[in-house]
Amino acid sequence: MASSNFNFINPFTFLNVQDSPGTYVGDFYTDNFEKGARAGNVILNLGPQHPSTHGVLRVLVELFGEYVLRSEPVLGYLHRMQEKMGEVKTPYQYLPNMGRVDYLNPIAWNWAFAGAVERLAGLEVPEKAEWLRVVSAELNRISSHLLWWGAFVMDLGGVTPILYAFEEREKINDILQIVTGSRLTYNYFRFGGVGQDADGRFVDLIKDFVPYMRERLKMYKALVTENIIFRRRLEGIGPMGEDICRRYGATGPIMRAAGVMCDTRRLYPYGIYDRFDYDIPTGPTDDCMGRYLVRLEEIKESLRILEQAVRDIPGGPHIVAKAPKPAYKLPAGESYFTVEGARGQVACHIISDGGKTPYRIKLRAPGFSNLSLFAEAAKGTLLADAIAILGSLDLVIPEVDR
Amino acid sequence: MSEKGDPKAREARIREALLGFGAERLTSPDPKKSGVALSAVMPGERMLEASEWLLKEGYTLLDLSTCEFQEGFLVSYHLDSFTEPFRLALRVLVKDKEKPVTPSIHPAFQGAEWHERESFDFFGVVFEGNPNLVPLLLPHDLPGPPPLRKDPKALASLDALGILGDGAAKEGGKGKEGGENGV
Q1: What predicted TM-score, i.e. pTM, was given to this entire model?
Q2: Phi-psi bin for A26: left (phi > 0), alpha (psi -120 to 50), beta?
Q3: pLDDT tier for residue A214 given thresholds of 50, 70 and 90
Q4: CATH number among 3.40.50.1100, 3.40.190.10, 2.30.30.60, 3.30.460.80, domain B20-153
């Protein structure tokens, strides 16, 4: 190494490929990434502790000045091998894991797994349970979008909005706590129904929440959406058209911002979504601003569903009378079930051989596919814009890594 | 997308195209139960061509779900168009367990890169043509065999499960002692 006294304050000098042929400073991934680097460019690790990577995502970037020439997300820091756990536990034992795959949107994952099991086993779900599922899923979608909204604005330098977002999120947590018993990693669904019925307070709180949230959305618009600095950071940044979305398998708000009306709730109706009148918002533009606006519109549509839901509450049991017991064995066969999560299409693929535990469980995380297009979308942008693009993808790393 | 109102014609066209790419065992499992409208076994070397055609048709790769059976590794590519409820499950059976190799579909669906790397991590299936086949989710120096490979005694047979057949499982598919499969 060079004998300069300043080496220790400039870590980038160590990462110059020309200086150290055959050996490397850093780790396996840095070394692998460096192979394609041009001499003189800076290679930088964003994360795994960078605040804008929300959790432990690590992105390797090759910088020329402030421009991102190349980037590669490095995953696995939160990998828990959920799919292996699914193979060694009975479906009932595995169910609580679904609250932990994506801690911001656990209801969707609850639904994906419970739905796949129910479809495979041919289980009926009572009407009241379907109602509770739709209501909890929509509340959870709003709370997930709220946290994304606050964190995204914080990535761009506005620290205040996340505090507002948390105020609303707390209200939703209060409501969901009544039925699920928890505030974060909900384990609410059961095979053939849900864990607990709703009481009058649950419905009253939703009735209060809907008009309250609508007022707050107006404030969000005045505070953030119309802010000129905010708009300049997003408009025209990171365009992701239909083509790139299709090539990478991006779904959810990213695909919808590109103008494709892809929504599992519409395309493959499940639950009782067909009873409600709601729109699928598609983006005015396919840039970061478009993705931002689509998510705010989705909050409005979820509020519309909640408003209709509390008007007409079905009676009956919240779980089917002959619900599977904990030692329940899945029949042999295969099932692929998708639901619309806050980040896109959540899917669970179960292959069962009729044994005590499933033969194979594959979880399709929307964030995984959404993040895979980052490297292409961030190519040639400014580093600060790459952060905006990363934020607009709404990543939850436990879900990406599973 | 012109035959949006005619699902029969669309299905016939996709079937015909897949047969042209050498598809075998085309079945239409009950979409309510299985979640897919059309299932087919593709020859691995024609999978890329089929993917390119499907991309032009507006399809996108949802995920790639690999599973080990007695017969080999079954790689299921789930594809969806988002315009019509017609999800596809295209399978490639990689028979050689010692050296499982199948061509990558990365040139068509770039999103496949990560899915293929994940399968490489978990099962050791090599996707030829993947531009960056290094571990994605697991440590690069993880010792031992790929973690989702099963104990040979716990392997189920594809035919007994009926996944590629008519969707209905035949009797005798219980080839596994629950909970004991190779940890």
Answers
A1: 0.84
A2: left
A3: very high
A4: 3.30.460.80
